[in-house]
Amino acid sequence: MLQLKVVALILIWWSINGVEDAVAAPDAHLVNMGCSSFNASDLRSFFANINETFSDMREEIRNQSKHFGTVQKARGEVLTYTMFQCRNYLSKNDCLSCFNTATTQIRNCSGGNGARVIYDSCFLRYESNRFYDQTNEIGSGVSCGNISSTVPDFKVAGEQALMDLQTATPKTRDFYAATKTLVAGGSAVYAVAQCVETATAINCQNCMQVGYNNLQSCLPNTEGRAYDAGCFMRYSTTPFFADNQTIDIAPYLKKGNSNKKWAIIGGVVGGVVLLLLLFAWRMSRKRNKVPRGDILGATELKGPVNYKYNDLKAATKNFSAENKLGEGGFGDVYKGTLKNGKVVAVKKLVFGKSSNMEDNFEGEVKLISNVHHRNLVRLLGCCSKSQERILVYEYMANKSLDKFLFGNKKGSLNWKQRSDIILGTARGLAYLHEEFHVSIIHRDIKTANILLNDDLQPKIADFGLARLLPEDRSHLSTKFAGTLGYTAPEYAMHGQLSEKADTYSYGIVVLEIVSGQKSTDVKDDEDGEYLLRRAWKLHERGLYLELVDNAIDPNEYEVEEVKKIIEIALLCTQASASTRPTMSEVVMLLKSKSLMEHLQPTMPVFVETNMIPRESNSTSSSNATVSISIPSAR
Ligand SMILES: *[C@@H]1O[C@H](CO)[C@@H](O)[C@H](O)[C@H]1NC(C)=O
Ligand SMILES: *[C@@H]1O[C@H](CO)[C@@H](O)[C@H](O)[C@H]1NC(C)=O
Ligand SMILES: *[C@@H]1O[C@H](CO)[C@@H](O)[C@H](O)[C@H]1NC(C)=O
Ligand SMILES: *[C@@H]1O[C@H](CO)[C@@H](O)[C@H](O)[C@H]1NC(C)=O
Ligand SMILES: *[C@@H]1O[C@H](CO)[C@@H](O)[C@H](O)[C@H]1NC(C)=O
Ligand SMILES: *[C@@H]1O[C@H](CO)[C@@H](O)[C@H](O)[C@H]1NC(C)=O
Q1: At 96, phi and psi to the nearest 5?
Q2: Ligand 5, atom 3: nearest CA belongs to which residue?
Q3: Does the annotation list 416 as a binding residue?
């Protein structure tokens, strides 16, 4: 629900900010503008980034005659990703002039950590996260002229011109096409289409399709433009580029497979690949006397396994309810028994229609399947079939930690088991952040994502999956992957993501393990406090043992050990991300006898809006702007 509200708010906000007619020169027509309503966390660094970025870009346009560029700058924790594009028909000077207009205009967004301006001739956008491969998102739109053409066949001719552009543009080398189409009666339609050069052909095609559908609604008016995150289309009966600047798109429109030259090369390459595949297939048949059935091609032997959809379907009894293990943030998980008897966990991903995932899926699966650590769940392989994306994991008999803390096994873990889980989880995270060759931020650490094996050792699940999520869909800077009650405030409110966001969530998990209280629950018998606030208050009064779960035998733990662990948890949940320890420091602290004097936790921020508000206690309205950045719970 909240997500819907957020979308609605963006749309309202967008339409208020949509500027239609700031005409200076004809091509400086501002089509759309948007500013993030969240300020960058450190405005000095942010403005310094922006200034440097703009001057770098100006130089690229001026010295290298570039029509497209991206620049990223990092200062401390402030990341700034910027993209600029001119329509290709512009001369260098016109491009530079449009860029200057755009930078002046975009400065009206002031300290907002994301912004975009779209002109007829160019566009400029920056964000605090990488957005370069985004194409379709909230914020797409159309702007039509207000004069209807009097030419009888104009609508039909216009539709054909736009349809051709939509087909051809993704096939061109630089994702750009410009055409002039003659209409009966002597008039003509000029049209351009362009995708950002960092898009993939498929994403460009999807973007063009949306743009084309939108632009159709403008016809038979004499002009219109459609814009989206990654593409732009415009048509007009008034020439806006010279006749000798059109692009011959005929080769891209031929039926069958467009370009003959490519078809021939494709045929030859295809033939070679086919031969190699046949060869690999025969080799693998020779080698594998034991039927394995699920490995594709010899090169895949060391990587993740590509499972066959039908095998997984059979293994999970057609994804039946009785085989369902649970519902995660990324999809349902089923228990599966493969033909060779091996038991696995099969996760059917639900991403909606995310084109971003299409490109990333294979690469990410390969990356994640290379992560080997005893405190991390192994990814065994995957399966792609049309829209379906499925991941296959090692199976954990004991299921997730939340069942042991809050579910049907509540109270069954003793102190030793709990402190082992606390340490093992920290080790797994330290590996993900610091030891694996690519730093992986989990983004959704919570008790439901910590699985326990037969020996009750923890294994973190679902890491790396957040990387598959579509990029930030809006200027609500959060490409949010968190869960209520566990999410670091700077990530929830500003979308600032770092390893320290995981450290924060880990701190909350530790408090839950010690107390047996859910982070979002209010303890009735006390003075009605959420877990973090309660832990902080008890810490201030030195009453550490009060926090410990009543189900644990008091003879099992020492007050010093309890104090140390709670203090570590509070260090992890400190308001400022930079003061939180790294996970390898947490491992060290957990193994040390007691905390050093100088490591006194500072007070956390109590983001009560980060939690489910109680009915009786209406959260103050001043917090309302904060709460819109919180997505619905998974
Ligand atoms: C960035 O540039 C603007 C305008 O040119 C200027 O007012 C501002 O002081 C600059 N900020 C920094 C941090 O350099
Ligand atoms: C770009 O041109 C300007 C002056 O025209 C010059 O000062 C600058 O060094 C050039 N930059 C590069 C990277 O060539
Ligand atoms: C943006 O700022 C310029 C001055 O730089 C001003 O003239 C213009 O009215 C502002 N536009 C909006 C939409 O705020
Ligand atoms: C954002 O920063 C600008 C300065 O660039 C300031 O004027 C404005 O009040 C800030 N807004 C919020 C919500 O902090
Ligand atoms: C059409 O829009 C232009 C500005 O783009 C405006 O000047 C003109 O008055 C409008 N005409 C009609 C008929 O609405
Ligand atoms: C295109 O036409 C314009 C005149 O409309 C001319 O000035 C220019 O040189 C031409 N460009 C090319 C590449 O032929």
Answers
A1: -60, -40
A2: 146
A3: no
Q: Which atom of ligand 2 is nearest to the CA of 59?
A: 1
Distance from the alpha carbon of residue 39 to the mean position of ligand 4, in angstroms: 6
| Residues labelled as active-site residues | 444
- Indicate the pLDDT class of residue 194, thresholds 50, 70 and 90: very high
Q: Is the CB of 47 under 6 A from ligand 4?
A: no
pLDDT at 130: 80
**How high is the pLDDT of residue 479?**
38
Token couple for 492: 């929830």
CATH architecture label of 305-394: 2-Layer Sandwich (3.30)
Ligand 1 atom at minimum distance from 47 CA = 13
Q: What is the CATH number of domain 405-629?
A: 1.10.510.10
**Alpha-carbon gap, residue 305 to 284, rounded angstroms:** 14
What is the torsion angle, in degrees rounded to the nearest 10, for the CA atoms of residue 436, residue 81, residue 465 and residue 228?
-160
To the nearest whole percent, how much of the chain has pLDDT over 70?
76
| Ligand in nearest proximity to the CA of 64 | 2
- Return the ligand number nearest the Cα of 106: 3
The mean pLDDT of 431-448, rounded to a whole number, is 87
Distance CA 146, CA 502 (A): 52
Candidates 3.30.430.20, 1.20.272.10, 3.30.1640.10, 3.40.50.150; CATH matching 148-271: 3.30.430.20
- Does the domain at 2-127 match CATH 3.30.430.20? Answer given as yes
CA-wise closest residue to 339 among 393, 301, 395, 292: 292
Rounded mean pLDDT, 277-301: 34
Q: Which two tokens stand for residue 160?
A: 């054909």
User: In this model, does residue 169 exceed pLDDT 60?
Assistant: yes
Q: pLDDT tier at 467 (50, 70, 90 boundaries)?
A: low
Question: Nearest C-alpha to atom 4 of ligand 4 is from which residue?
Answer: 111
Q: Is the CB of 104 under 6 A from ligand 3?
A: yes
